[in-house]
Amino acid sequence: MSTTAASPQSITTAPLPEEVRVAIVGSGFSGLGMAVGLLQDDERNFVILETASDIGGTWRDNVYPGCACDVPSHMYSFSFAPNPNWTRSFATQPEIWAYQQSVVERFGLRPYVRTGAEVVNATWDADRQRWIVETVRGTVVAQFLVAGTGPLCEPKYPDLPGLDTFEGTVFHSARWNHDHDLAGERIAVIGTGASAIQFVPRIQPDAKSLLLFQRTPPWVLPRPDRPITNLERFVFRHLPFAQKLARLGIYLGRESFVLSFNHVAKLRGLPRVIGLKHMKHQIPDDAELRAKLTPDYQVGCKRVLISNEYFPALNADNADVNTTGIREVRPHSIVDNAGVEHEVDTIIHGTGFHVTDQPIADRLVGADGRRLAEHWSQGMEAYRGTTIAGFPNLFMLVGPNTGLGHNSIIYMIESQVTYVRDALRKTRRGRIGAIVPRRPVVDAENEEIQHRLEGTVWNDGGCASWYQDARGRNTTLWPDFTFLYRRRVASFDEESYETTPAVPARETVGV
Questions:
Q1: Hey, CA dihedral for 87, 89, 90, 96, is it positive or negative?
Q2: Is the pTM for the entire model greater than 0.85?
């Protein structure tokens, strides 16, 4: 499979279908995986609704310098579409987006994609047993709605006094301004998440000065990245089983992280030692800087980051780390909480995304006429991380408590797609018009998950992270080995759902 991205084709001009069996929102890995699964079941009566002008989701939007994956390439791809041509052990953004494009071409998905079709509202119509999906291009009626928007789609901006008065350039890493030349500028970077770890080393060498505002330092471990040799790629192309073995080895290695994050507290000291040694090796002569960059919480409590370039960039003569916080922003400067004013030309936000308050929740109206955001006002919850009480025939991919702190989210997506496919098959065979998880079942599972999260490094590692919502409840992560989740969603458990027989409806035609 080639990793050269296809040129965007004319996929915006086709009209929206009036009615489909399945409407998929989003064309990132979740939406593409779901679409391929439908085709494998010979289901062609579906549409993919994409807000942007091309497919790709977060890997289309995040084009900041240095953007790359922190999961090894062979694991960060669909099991049904292996790519023997990865050029590095950790793929970069252009190569991942090219891979997504190649999946679209290989499985013939483009005829099902409608770009420029942002969903503004979707309402459940109980009488018709259909979702009425309103987009900026028109309305689509669907029996089933699959939300594949993911948690890393809407940038989160900090609420800083005076930010609107700043007269320089301001942008978020997920909306990188490539027209703005950063060379010779005084740059302020706000945030120390995964994006900042990657773009800071790329922009620091050409900056006049780089000031990083850090609230909480991340744990940064060595990045074992290297080029994949021509010989290796030849073997993967001609001996696919070799790539499957490589993928299995990566999977098992990543799964082992759960032992220290969850099951065996005594193992948590090892990654700490590795992280501190990595920092000392890369910043050998500045104890003050090392102190600023040393976390006071356990490894894994916040997302573990990997880089061989971050520490050297911050140790450069033109870089500095500010840990006092920001008091206010002025037209040409930032004033920290110590009262020191720092003149800057550009502010770059590396402040992450809306994860526990996903924007899609404001656009989905359930059976009781209330929006999902209202249902989730006390925290996100779902059954199997996929279906939601009060929202019939709705499936959410990468839903609550399906995120990972150790392995590839694509493994979880494929697991969920298997569950959705089985649900669609059983509803068709049983002439079922609507399904919705029973409230006691949802409550019991979420209580179990929260109980299993107790004592893990993700909950009790001594930090506040984006894994947790405003109430301190971890509604993001799956608390255990991923194969246990896959076993849980291996088949659709109809007994956990309220089902309604299908009402007579006219036949619809596919896309």
A1: positive
A2: yes
